[in-house]
Amino acid sequence: MENIVIKPHHLLDILKLYGKGIENFVPDINYNHDFYLIGNMVVNGKVEFIRFTRDCDDICRPCKYCKTEKCSDVVAFLSGYSKDEYNKEIDDELLKFWGLRFDMDYSFNDILVLLSKELNYHLFKKVWKHEQEDAIQFRNAFTIMGTYKVLLNYAGSKG
Ligand code: SF4
């Protein structure tokens, strides 16, 4: 079992894509980040403890946009926002919603149980306030589905 450091919205992105039906994440040759590596660990029952960060995480480290703990990418659909600023706003909101803190170790299984109770349309609508309605509904449905699928994988991995 492994311990990971991750931005809260990266965790939800993994759960959303898994809920949508992606069973095996593959490397991104453009960004060169480790989304595939952490994503596969998360969904395959390999993570024991999780620590949330708002800075560069285990996914970001090899990414071409990870510069001195900050993301130097831009948000294509939102002028005036850096991706770093945009992501930090989302990540701060998510932890506030869940009553969790950055830079603390949590049992990943406990986090999955919490997410299965706390994820809902209201949360996605409030946190992803710049997104279109259909994208929010997509996020809500598939992230919840992915959370339950991963919970089952962790229950299975315990025997
Ligand atoms: S550095 Fe930025 S673009 Fe790269 S993985 Fe991290 S958040 Fe994404």
Automatic annotation (TrEMBL):
Output this protein's name: Uncharacterized protein
**What is the organism field in this record?**
Clostridium neuense
